[in-house]
Amino acid sequence: MLPGLLASALMLIPALAGMHWGELLREKLSPELFKKLLMLSLLALGVYLCL
Question: What sign does the CA torsion over 3, 6, 8, 14 have?
Fold first, then answer.
């Protein structure tokens, strides 16, 4: 149980860093551009997962 708990806790670091980075981008970009970039990123991730 402990190794799984430690791995989960460590995986929070990149998740929280990504959320922080997204908030910084959202503040600097227009809402329309941010939405387009987010959707393109999700599309690219989806294509990558399908390959």
Answer: negative
Per-residue pLDDT of the chain (51 residues; tens, 9 = 90+): 678 899 999 999 999 999 999 999 999 999 999 999 999 999 999 999 999
User: Which of 42, 36, 47, 1 has its CA nearest to residue 18?
Assistant: 42
- Number of domains observed in the structure of the chain: 1
- For 30, 42, 51, the CA distances from 39, given in Å and listed in that order, are 14, 5, 19
**10 is in which domain, residue-wise?**
2-50
